[in-house]
Specification:
Blueprint lengths: L4 E5 L3 E6 L3 E7 L2 E4 L5 E4 H5 L9 E4 L2 E2 L2 E2 L2 H15 L8 E6 L5 H13 L4 E6 H8 L10 E6 L4 E7 L2 E8 L3 H15 L2 E2 L2 H11 L10 E8 L5 E7 H25 L2 H10 L1 E4 L8 H9 L3 E3 L6 H10 L12 H10 L1
Parallel strand pairs: 1-9, 9-10, 11-17, 17-18
Antiparallel strand pairs: 1-2, 2-3, 4-5, 4-6, 7-8, 11-12, 12-13, 14-15, 15-16
Helix pairs in contact: 2-3, 4-10, 5-6, 5-7, 7-9
Bound molecules: adenosine-5'-triphosphate and magnesium ion.
């Protein structure tokens, strides 16, 4: 029987982990369709190039937002193509396990189960992304000792306090790397009178962006639309300006950590201040974010190795023992099982 697939269906990227092979697909969660007949024209990186550049007849879109499906039909199309790509050599349909935000609603859960089956899965299993992230980051949370994982993706932030193989407290907010990009777009429109697109905003963030002052100021020159003249204008942006632009999203992340820690039992809180917070997800690569969280929360913070792939690695590990899990919506039994895996 061919191995099950672990699918991290992220707002920014989709990663598929196949048993014995590792990550076999890593593509942007984007597709482009012909508006007239609904036919898919491109997916993944090819479709990503089209974002914001399509003529009226084509629409390029992201079918997952804030960690959950926002466009059912488009998500099914994209996932069908991705599963087909990695299962081209198989005769039987694969079993699939997806990571989901800890506070996913029943409706959102149902949509993912349906999409998984419609896209070619034989059985669909769900698990909280934050648990998968912890397993993928190699965190041992089987003992009665509190561990904190914060997964910062493109569209969402998932925080979990883990102990005894399960989640004690969790929170999920729709703030992620894309919120930093949007903050930068708003800042430049308001303070510099230029309008830039989302892709350029992301490039600036990755190239020179920071949430705490860098030891050496960095600069980048970009082109945007001049809001006064409506023509293109050159604009030099400094890393300190990005820190101002990112303040609002940074503050939301800090608020969320505080709100979860306030609900955490004192015994676990003591463990957590010892073991620290582990960051996973591509969003945690924002320059200075680990130190920023450390300064505001007062607990040491570290970034997991290969942080963007932790959820996929964890799902891959879980995919190896699906025989002990129940397919469908998340059950308590499943959490117990994790005790044996971590
Ligand atoms: N070097 C970097 N500096 C800052 N941000 C980065 C860097 N590399 C990647 N990112 C950001 O990480 C985000 C994507 O992270 P990730 O791939 O973990 O998201 P995702 O799993 O697709 O989304 P989600 O988990 O929210 O559904 C993007 O917003 C991207 O801009
Ligand atoms: Mg993610």
């Amino acid at each position: 029987m061919p191995g099950a697939l672990g699918i991290d269906l992220g707002s920014s990227s989709t990663r598929i982990f196949e048993k014995r092979k590792g990550i076999v697909l890593r593509e942007p969660t984007v597709l482009a369709v012909d508006r007239e007949n609904g036919r898919m024209i491109a997916i993944g990186s090819q479709a990503e190039q089209m974002l914001g550049r399509t003529p009226g007849s084509i629409s390029a879109l992201k079918p997952v937002k804030g960690g959950v499906i926002s466009d059912y039909e488009m998500c099914r199309e994209m996932l069908t193509a991705y599963i087909k790509k990695v299962c081209a050599h198989r005769l039987a349909k694969p079993e699939v396990i997806f990571g989901v935000p800890a506070c996913i609603t029943q409706l959102e859960e149902r949509a993912l189960l349906d999409v998984g089956c419609a896209a070619g899965a034989r059985k669909v299993f769900l698990v909280e992304s934050v648990l998968a992230a912890a397993i993928g980051a190699g965190i041992d949370f089987a003992k009665p000792e509190g561990k904190v994982v914060l997964d910062i993706g493109g569209g969402s932030c998932d925080l979990g306090i883990l102990s005894l193989g399960g989640i004690v407290e969790s929170e999920s907010i729709k703030i992620g790397g894309e919120s930093f990009d949007e903050g930068l777009i708003r800042y430049l429109r308001k303070n510099r009178g230029i309008l830039i697109g989302k892709r350029i905003a992301e490039e600036i963030k990755i190239e020179i962006g920071c949430i705490l002052p860098r030891p050496e100021e960095k600069k980048i020159c970009v082109q945007g639309r001049d809001l006064k003249g409506s023509y293109l204008a050159d604009c030099e942006i400094t890393s300190s300006e990005t820190a101002l632009a990112f303040e609002e999203s940074g503050a939301r992340i800090i608020e969320t950590i505080h709100s979860v820690l306030e609900k955490t039992p004192p015994e676990l809180l003591a463990d957590v201040s010892q073991s620290g917070i582990t960051l996973t997800g591509g969003g945690s690569l924002l320059w200075g974010l680990d130190e920023y969280i450390h300064r505001h929360i007062g607990i040491k913070v570290s970034i997991a190795d290969d942080c963007s792939s932790c959820v996929a690695f964890g799902l891959g590990k879980l995919a190896e023992s699906l025989q002990n899990m129940q397919p469908g919506a998340i059950h308590l039994e499943r959490k117990k099982l994790l005790l044996h895996l971590s």
